[in-house]
Amino acid sequence: MRSERSRKSRIKKEDYSVEFIGGSGQKRGVNMNTAMQSFGYGLAALLFCIAILGVCHNIKKAARKFLKSQQTHKDELP
């Protein structure tokens, strides 16, 4: 009975060892999930930077327009 249990446990361990890559303790899908998560974070950071640049560009345009409108009042001074 004892040898049957140990044989079953060895078979289970061998079956699980097939799911690991290089014995490093990581399952097959873990590396791909980590890569996709990193790609997602990178893409989100890139989109965030583009949004910030767009907002800054609009602020810069508004500031130029405001400053140009202020320059016309200098002509009215005696």
Q: Which whole number gives the mean pLDDT?
A: 76
Q: What general outline do the C-alpha atoms trace? A: rod-shaped
| Structural class category | mainly alpha
> What are the low-pLDDT stretches, counting only 5+ consecutive residues below 50?
none
Cα separation of the termini: 111 Å
Instruction: Give the biggest sheet.
Output: none
User: What is the alpha-carbon Rg in Å?
Assistant: 32 Å
- What pattern of helices and strands is seen along the backbone? HH
What percentage of amino acids are in beta strands?
Answer: under 5%
Count of DSSP strands: 0
Instruction: Please tally the helical runs, counting DSSP H or I stretches of 4 or more residues.
Output: 2
The helix content is: over 70%
Model description:
- This protein is 78% helix and 0% strand.
- With 78 residues, the chain is mainly α.
- The chain is rod-shaped and about 100 Å long.
Please provide a brief summary of the model.
This protein is mainly α and 78 residues long. 78% of the residues lie in helices and 0% in strands. The protein is built from two helices and no strands.
